[in-house]
User: Fold these one by one.
Assistant:
Number 1:
Amino acid sequence: MESKRKILMDCDPGVDDAVALCLAAAHPEAFAFLGITTVAGNQTIEKVTENALRLSGFLGLNVPVAMGARTPLLRAPLTASEVHGKNGLGNVELPASAQTAREHAVLFLRDALCGLPAGEQATLVPTGPLTNIALMLRVFPEVRERIAQIVLMGGAACGGNITATAEFNIYEDPEAAAIVFDSGLPVVMCGLDATAKCGLDRAAADALAGGTGKVSRAVGGMLQFYLNAGAYRGRPMASIHDASTFMYLLHPEIYSGCRTTVRVDCSEGFNRGMTVCDLRGREPAAEPSVTVLLDADGAKFQEYLLDAVRTLDERL
Ligand code: BDR
Ligand code: CA
């Protein structure tokens, strides 16, 4: 039997980060969590760290949480309160955690990776700006051999959400993203081309919110905020971008994409934060290290995600 993937998730919860964690928590047969690290993004570092602590307890993961970068490498932080609410979780209140966060995420990640038994590797799952990951790669390059792959949510081959050409996580810290995409490590880019098609529709969100299970109610409440107050107002479906990372690891067959080079625009121009994906189909000089997801089966995503929430309702 294939052994479980060891997971280090770096996130900024965040409604969709939270739902991504639900999906992962429902699959202990596939994932062994080594820890959760946080980065400023959807909310301040204090708020996203508090949310990570609460989610770890609420979802029965009970893994170490370490607080990371409070600002991008070069810029002032942005937040996304209009999408994720004042508390970052669509104003859904999860029970407080007795656990406290460690510091610093970069040191925690280094120790977790370098402390793995000889020959073993872990998968990094970043679902926020890439600040912590870039810092770690620059300061502790010895971690490289311990990284199986980096399956990240960020970027797009076509279009953007924070600007016409940039996706939020990459726009927040393009310099960090450039370090990660240029690292030569195996990266899977779960960008908007695929993740925007993966979510829950309004009927599903309402049904969860009105359900009896505690995970259903929390997820439904967060998504109702997303659908009513945020960027999805008036739309039939809320994209749950970050959950495509774990969904890809569980069900790669519902995604399609290609391997290619990805360059990040770090200029101050209109395209700052754009992930420039070479889709010309030319024979590259060297085998590209990045897999870019370009399409997804949204119906299957919804089915598998609802299964995961049901599983957690029954277990917790
Ligand atoms: C990404 O931006 C954040 O607001 C979400 O949590 C997700 O990681 C989508 O563009
Ligand atoms: Ca996120």
Number 2:
Amino acid sequence: MRLADDEKAMLDGAEGPAVAAAMDLLVRYGEALGAERLCNVRNVAGTMTQPTPAKAKLVREYGWHKAFAVINLDSDGDFEIPHMRVPTCQLQHGFGEDALGVTPYPAELVRIQQDAEAFYGPRGVNILATCTPYQVGNLPVRGEHCAWMESSAVVYANSVLGARTNCEGTASTGAASLTGKIPCWGNHLDENRLGTHLIEAAVPVDSFRDWGMFGYFVGEVVQENRPVVTGTLGHPDLTDLKHFGAATASSGGVELYHIPGITPEAPTLEAAFGGAVPSEKIVYGERERRHVYETLNNQGESTDVDFVLLGCPHASLDQIAKVAHLLEGRRLNPGTELWIMAPRALRTMADRSGYTEIIERAGGRVLTDSCPAMSRVAPEGTRVFATDSAKQAHYLPAILGIEAWFGTLEECVDAAVTGVWRGEL
Ligand code: F3S
């Protein structure tokens, strides 16, 4: 890999041992990938504060500097971690103090995370604590090179914002934070941003549930390729696209899609493919739609719902407002809990707008920082949950060993109020 002068200097230790270790990691990583060079990044979204048993042990024995070296730089060196070189944010992590007594998340992990925030915050890690950093002020511009983790955020950044990032890992984002560099390969390069598969919807896709189901279909058929989707599509909003992308990255590994006339790198169908449009297309019709619905509901047996989970990826303010509207003047079934996951900044706005109070008066909760999949917890005794998120319906049954129902927001709120799943296609 060719290194620029500033990169060589970092590698040689001109900016201290931590930066040298970070550059060493990027060189090893880039060479393994076949990257020819590094590119400059000014926007890193990674995970530094998430508490894990391995991290807790390292911190107990050696402190936070060493924990960062081992976990975020893949180095066993003993050195001080300096201030991050470029703007960096923490994605979702574990639940915080406000969830104690609400979720069964261990208090010990909450304490470790608070320590982590106190260490990383002053070193330039913005504690956004959400899988949707683009909803709370971290909004890269079109063409901007970034180093982001979190599959649902990566596919949003590439596709909806036209920014450029691969799906990075804990170590590569740690190294990018200290150097402002990341290997220039994959989604950073023009030639890897054109569509590969044409998918045509032949049934209407214009509700939140429709976009989730369509995304789940698209991910399943294209896996890690780059779909271009057309057909009977309504005009999606931010929540539809966040749901669609998260679903494509759950059933498959999509990091970039195009919707001609909607997403920025696809003003036309031809532009999405860089010229010739493939003659073959994959059709999403009634049969495929029903298949997706049945797949997402094949983990459900009992219709007695203990838990309703909304906000995956983390909810927008509009989604929180909708839940409040649906719960106004109602009470949850005594045996059913409802949690809506949201970025903490949006929870503050929901508080000011009165939405949180309405939801809590009904017996529901607006929780921040994390989610059941990330923190691996649900309300005590949960056997059956319902969700409007294709991603959670895909992952949570395996993570927590519980049954799942997938449906609309209205069906989920109905299940929270009645305790019974009555969803249908
Ligand atoms: Fe976010 Fe958790 Fe879903 S991190 S994307 S709410 S699985």
Number 3:
Amino acid sequence: QNDMAATQITTHKNYICGQWVESVTGRTYQVHNPAHTDQIVGAFQTSGAEDALRAVAAAKEGLAIWGNTPAPARATIIYKALEIMGRRADEMAQAITIEEGKPIGDAAGEVKRSMNIMEYAAGEGRRMFGYTTPSELPNTVAYTVRRPLGIVGIITPWNFPLAIPAWKIAPALICGNALVFKPASATPLSAVKLMEIFEEAGLPPGVLNLVTGPGGQVGNALVESPDVKGISFTGSTEVGTELYAESAKRLKKVQAEMGGKNAVIVLADADMNKAMGGIVSGAFGSTGQRCTATSRVIVEEGVYDQFMAELLDRTSKLTIGDGIDPSIDVSPLASQNQKDKVMEYIGIGTEEGANLVYGGRALSGGDFDQGYYVEPTIFTDVSPDMRIAKEEIFGPVLTVFKAKDLTEAIDISNSVEFGLSSSVYTKDISKAYEYINTVETGMVHVNAPTLGGEVHLPFGGLNSSGVGQREQGTAMVDFFSEVITVYIDHAAEAGERAKFI
Ligand code: NDP
């Protein structure tokens, strides 16, 4: 039971130019706990385009200071923010669970992941490498140097309300940019807390601005503003595609991380215990609402029956309830919309002729009536042309395919428009490499779940899963900076260069 009773609703404000301010619309909206819909998490500003533009104007001021601050000095503020987040880690994890619904252990992992990227990004302050190279001219020095991209819009989804903002904001800050951050409307509390942390850490006014409110207005205003030089977006393929097209018209730099339909292949020689652990946590952990969640399993036919028996047994042992209880494996979906969408896909799967072998129901009765609960659900006899096999469901629904060998399994794996993450379970090194070389995803796992990633390695997908430069790893600096090429002729008098010209 959390202590956010409906009677003590806190109204949170936007953060613009170092001040907590109300939206010019004068309107607010409420966010509630997905596990207890009668509990209000807080009230937040329903901002519009004018608020977004005020934040852009503030960012101009911030950029003038921050862009000229040496990168190692920027790093000291990010290190300070890291220290503050460490102190507030439990509170941050609770905020994530209360507004998004994920199990508290997953939320704690999300806080840790956010801290990891802050640490990694701050370290980049002492690298930020350019390169030098011989010039073709005498007495000439040629080198490259990095400059901030400028004002950048950060637009994030609800499924990782802290980690996704952190893995965009920390890299953007170390590169010297000024930001306008628009979090998902469903999960603004973690965003507010992240602003508080950077404020306490001493970030100058205007460098990091928060504007909450509907994407159609606040997000659009950022895309349309000529002062915004780049957009870092994570969300649905539908919104990302539109945002990319609109930004292209204005020659903005964009990175868009979007949906997934991630598959695991289980070959006959796989360590079944290991595969099962990875698949159950990949499919049903965080209620299947990770972009890297496992939504398809392709099993080599020789082990199919054994696999299915173990999968059903493992799934039946999962506990379902409010994620604030540490013993819970599967918590509610994040919203009524999510619940409706998942239930609709379960209906579609049944109509398409797939075999519903486990779950499939929205849960009701007792505490379940207060949240958006759907049972872990498994379909077999799925064929690659079915909608449940191709479209992102973003919930606890696993589709199972049978394949005669690795080649057919890879064909099925590659038969979707998405290409975010994938995995194979096998002990055969040749088969593992055949898989690595032919599977069409941005992240490839062998004998490990489709989930996650480490912050010092690039994160992102192919095809409809992502466009633009990768996030995290050394790639982060490439997106958030411009490379400037410098030529210096240091000869005392006109010489060879004159001849060349
Ligand atoms: P949406 O695309 O609906 O929203 C993402 C963000 O974009 C939100 O902040 C939203 O605001 C905003 N937005 C909505 N419309 C516009 C617009 N016209 N212009 C600018 N911004 C807009 O996605 P969800 O929040 O529903 O997130 C779930 C999706 O995110 C899933 O499809 C999932 O796969 C994907 N995802 C991808 C990841 C990856 O790295 N590949 C990681 C995590 C999630 P508002 O909330 O106000 O609508």
Number 4:
Amino acid sequence: MDSIRITGGKRLEGKIPISGAKNSALTLLPCALLTEGKLTLGNLPRLADVDNFSHLLNGLGVSTKVAGVKKGEFGRKMTLSAREIASTVAPYDMVRKMRASILVLGPMLARAGESTVSLPGGCAIGDRPIDLHLKVLEALGAEIELAAGYVKASAPKGRLSGGDYSFPVVSVGATENGLMAAVLASGRSELFNAAREPEIVDLCNLLVAMGGKIDGIGSSHLVIDGVEGLDGCSYDVMPDRIEAGSYACAAGITGGSIELVGARPSDMLAITNALAAAGLVIEFTENGMRVTADKPLRPLAVSTAPYPGFPTDMQAQFMAMLSVAEGQSFLEETIFENRYMHVPELRRMGADIEVHGRSAIVKGGAKLTGAQVMATDLRASMSLVLAGLAAKGETEVLRVYHLDRGYERLEEKLQGVGATIERVSLG
Ligand code: UD1
């Protein structure tokens, strides 16, 4: 297993290219199931989760072809074709590797009239149920059975009718499943209190490009008029706002200046507002934005919330950055329980953080020191990389597979702005 070794203390300066968004890619890929035509997705990030998702789709009968990329180029293009659905079962072996596998449930049901997906197992960031995914599909006319660790959804008469559903809490994944199922239903569907994340907008835009009829895109009230069939098309994945935000924190924690090339600031208002409140200077450039830390960081009070609020996927990285700010910061995690698994590891590096239930107090001014650390999820791992970039001495981040799930060529991008960071193969 590989690890990432960092010698901290360098001010980072330069440009980092921002990749396609992981969370968008993972909801655009299953759209291949909705059409007999060819779906070509560009700007796909090169990530373990994208590979795993395409293997899952292969098992359902979707062929995938990756266009060659030149050396040094980021991203890639994939053409997916599901002329026929060969199997409507997503097995445990695939789903356990990646929770996002649940996103084949809606589109497979819509296209084939049935869909069987293993229930996802335990998750490091708290209990993540899928009840809302099932409820929205039921509202669209599906019959749901749970047996032997699998959920089986079927459409009476082979096609969903469509229907209305009001989400009791905002869920990104359940909104995605609902949308992908509703586009091929025989009637109209209305989703209330739907998630409004930019990745949902990306999904809606793709579905419309394929011939879907959706009103209210970008709002929490989506109206979907089902169509008989969808066509293939070519579509580019949106830039990753969480990757961009993570590298903005790298500028912050090292007192550096980084241009995030290809970032889309309009998707990142809550993040840029928080960065600015922490004292960073944000400049919009022709190709994205530049983030500069030219004075000591200020403490913050931040609470995570569904979009357009501050994303839970940025909480760990901000916590690392705020551990070196001058003063006391307050963080509150309202989306997932148990999402402070990075705290004990940050403490081992010298951060002074107290957790009280869903709140955390970060007593700033820490002089971080390098250590061997490991994390249990993707964003938590990134917070340790950030702490390592600012720490005195050497930091070794173990369990790199978490980072490989969500950060394309992390060490290459950070080396490009002057970091001393390398991947070490432990055999
Ligand atoms: C998605 C992202 C994840 C991100 C999260 C929040 C993907 C593949 N994953 O996760 O990286 O951290 O959004 O932005 O895009 N809930 C239920 N029942 C359900 C579904 C969700 O109770 O059926 C609850 C969850 O426990 C949580 C909240 O709703 O408290 C929001 O979860 P949700 O938005 O669904 O997150 P994911 O789609 O799993």
